[in-house]
C-alpha cells in the first residue's frame, strides 16, 4: 500500500526526522489560508501516489497567498501525468503547502527490501534530487548500499559510514547518522517495503530536512496496522485492483491483452509463461485462490471482462478444493451480467472436470476447451489472429 507525501512526512516526523512546516489543502481557499499562516510564501505540491511531480509541473514555488491559491486551483481536481503514473495520470485531490526551503544540496536516501540479499538495504547518494533512476542507470557507483542484518539490526557504525560516504559537512555527520537510524526505525515499525527521502536536503542554514518522502507498506502486514489502513486512498489505485481486493482475489494489472484467470499462484505464473510462449502478454496476474467460491469466480471473471485492454481470455483451472463445475458456473454467471466480446480458451483438469467442461460447452459462450498448456498456447495465438 502506498500513501501520500503528507502522510509519509507525518510518520517521519513522529520518528524525529525533520520535515518542513506545512499543511494540506483540498480547496484553493484553504491553500491560500495555509500560505498566509506560513508567512506568505510556499511550495505547492500535488499529492499523488507517484513521483516525478517536479518535472511534470506538480511542484510550484509561490511567493504569495494569491499565487498559492491559483497554483492550487490549477492542480486540484485535475489528473497529473508524470513518468511514473502512465499516460492516464493520477487524480489530485489534495495539495501540500510547505514553507519553502533554500536548498544548498540534495541527497538521496532510501531503504528497500533486497530480495536477493534477503534483507533491508539502505541506499544513499550525493546525486540526489529528481532523477535517481538515471543515476542508477548511468553511474551506479554514485549510490552507496548497506545491507542490514534484520536480527542484529542497523548498527551505529553503518549509519556513520553512510554519512561519511555522502561527504557531508563534519557538523552534519551525527545528525545524518541519527536520521538514517530513525528512518530504519520507521521502516521496521511500520512494516515498510520502501522508505524513501528524495531529496534529503541541506538547507542554506545548514540543516538536514526531508523535502520529499515516500513510504510503501507491505500489504501482508497491514492487518497489524490499523493506523495505516486509515491512510489508504483508493482513488489513487487501479480501480480493477481495488475491486479485486474487496472480494479477496489476488489481482495485479499488467500491460498485455490476454486476461488470465487461474487458481493458485504457481499455476498463475506457469500460465503467464505459456502466454509469453504464445508471443502474447498477460493483461493481469489473477489468482482466485485454492478455495474460491462460485461468487469469487464470477467476480474475477467480471474483472477480466471489464478490462478494455483484454482481447482474449485464458482460464486455467486445476480442480481441487475448487471444483471445476463451480468454476464453470462462476464463469457462466459472470457472462450473464457482462457481455462477452472476446474469445475464451479454457483448460480444466481435476475434480469434476468433465462436469465443468459440459457446463461451458452448453453455455453458448463459444468457449474453446483445450486439454493441455501447449494447446492452450496455440489457441491463444489463433485467438489473436481471429481477433
Ligand atoms: P517529485 O519530483 O515527485 O519527487 O517531488 P519532490 O518533492 O522531490 O520535488 C521535486 C523537486 O522540487 C525537488 O528535487 C526540489 O528540487 C524541489 N523542491 C521541493 N521542495 C522545495 C522547496 O522547499 N524549495 C525549493 N527551492 N525547491 C523545492
Ligand atoms: Mn522526490
Could you list the spans in which at least 5 consecutive residues all have pLDDT below 50? none
Q: Which ligands are bound?
A: guanosine-5'-diphosphate, manganese (II) ion
Kindly report the average pLDDT value: 95
Could you tell me the strand content as a percent range? 15-25%
Assembly classification = single chain
State the helicity in percent bands: 25-40%
Tally of contiguous helical segments: 13
What is the strand and helix layout of this fold?
Layout: H1 5-14, E1 22-25, H2 28-37, E2 42-46, E3 59-62, H3 65-75, E4 79-80, E5 90-91, E6 95-98, E7 103-114, E8 119-125, H4 132-138, E9 143-147, H5 156-165, H6 173-189, E10 192-203, E11 208-210, E12 214-217, H7 226-229, H8 239-246, E13 250-253, E14 258-262, H9 265-277, E15 284-287, H10 294-306, E16 312-319, H11 324-337, E17 344-350, H12 353-361, E18 367-370, H13 373-386
Parallel strand pairs: 14-16, 16-17, 17-18
Antiparallel strand pairs: 1-6, 2-3, 2-6, 4-5, 7-8, 7-10, 8-9, 10-11, 10-12, 13-15
Bound molecules: guanosine-5'-diphosphate (GDP) and manganese (II) ion (MN).
Structure description:
It is a single chain. The chain has 387 residues and is α+β, with helices and mostly antiparallel strands. 36% of the residues lie in helices and 25% in strands. Strands 7, 8, 9, 10, 11 and 12 form a 6-stranded antiparallel beta sheet that branches. Helix 5 crosses helix 6 and helix 11 runs parallel beside helix 12. The longest helix is centred in the middle third of the chain and has 17 residues. It starts with a helix and ends with a helix. The mean pLDDT is 95. The site of guanosine-5'-diphosphate (GDP) has 19 residues, from strand 2, strand 3, strand 7 and strand 10.
Amino acid at each position: 500500500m502506498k500513501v501520500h507525501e503528507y502522510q509519509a512526512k507525518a510518520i517521519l516526523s513522529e520518528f524525529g526526522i525533520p520535515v518542513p512546516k506545512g499543511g494540506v489543502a483540498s480547496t484553493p481557499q484553504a491553500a491560500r489560508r495555509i500560505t498566509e499562516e506560513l508567512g506568505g510564501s510556499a511550495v505547492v505540491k500535488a499529492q499523488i501516489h507517484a513521483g516525478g511531480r517536479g518535472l511534470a509541473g506538480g511542484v510550484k514555488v509561490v511567493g504569495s497567498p494569491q499565487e498559492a491559491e491559483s497554483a492550487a486551483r490549477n492542480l486540484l481536481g485535475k489528473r497529473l501525468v508524470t513518468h511514473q503514473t502512465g499516460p492516464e495520470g493520477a487524480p489530485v485531490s489534495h495539495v501540500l503547502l510547505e514553507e519553502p526551503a533554500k536548498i544548498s544540496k540534495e541527497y538521496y536516501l532510501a531503504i528497500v527490501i533486497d530480495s536477493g540479499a534477503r534483507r533491508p538495504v539502505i541506499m544513499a547518494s550525493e546525486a540526489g534530487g529528481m532523477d535517481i533512476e538515471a543515476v542508477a542507470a548511468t553511474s551506479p557507483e554514485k549510490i552507496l548500499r548497506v545491507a542490514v542484518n534484520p536480527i542484529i539490526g542497523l548498527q551505529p557504525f553503518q549509519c556513520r559510514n553512510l554519512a561519511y560516504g555522502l561527504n557531508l559537512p563534519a557538523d552534519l555527520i551525527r545528525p545524518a547518522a541519527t536520521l538514517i537510524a530513525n528512518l530504519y526505525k520507521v521502516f521496521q515499525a511500520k512494516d515498510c517495503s520502501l522508505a524513501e527521502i528524495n531529496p534529503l536536503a541541506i538547507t542554506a542554514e545548514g540543516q538536514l530536512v526531508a523535502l520529499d518522502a515516500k513510504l510503501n507498506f507491505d500489504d501482508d502486514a497491514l492487518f497489524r496496522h490499523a493506523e495505516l489502513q486509515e491512510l489508504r486512498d483508493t482513488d489513487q489505485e487501479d480501480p480493477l485492483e481495488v475491486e479485486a481486493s474487496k472480494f479477496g482475489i489476488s489481482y495485479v494489472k499488467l500491460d498485455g491483452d490476454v486476461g488470465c484467470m487461474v487458481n493458485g499462484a504457481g499455476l498463475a505464473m506457469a500460465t503467464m509463461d505459456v502466454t509469453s510462449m504464445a508471443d502474447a502478454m498477460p493483461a493481469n496476474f489473477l489468482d482466485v485462490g485454492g478455495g474460491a467460491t462460485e461468487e469469487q469466480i464470477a467476480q474475477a471473471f467480471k474483472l477480466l471482462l471489464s478490462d478494455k485492454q483484454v482481447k482474449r481470455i485464458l482460464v486455467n483451472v486445476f480442480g481441487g478444493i475448487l471444483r471445476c463445475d463451480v468454476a464453470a458456473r462462476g464463469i457462466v454467471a459472470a457472462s450473464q451480467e457482462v457481455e462477452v466480446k472476446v474469445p475464451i480458451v479454457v483448460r480444466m483438469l481435476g475434480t469434476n472436470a468433465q462436469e465443468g467442461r459440459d457446463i461451458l460447452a452448453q453455455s453458448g459462450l463459444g468457449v474453446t476447451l483445450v486439454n493441455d498448456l501447449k494447446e492452450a498456447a496455440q489457441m491463444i495465438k489463433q485467438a489473436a489472429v481471429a481477433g
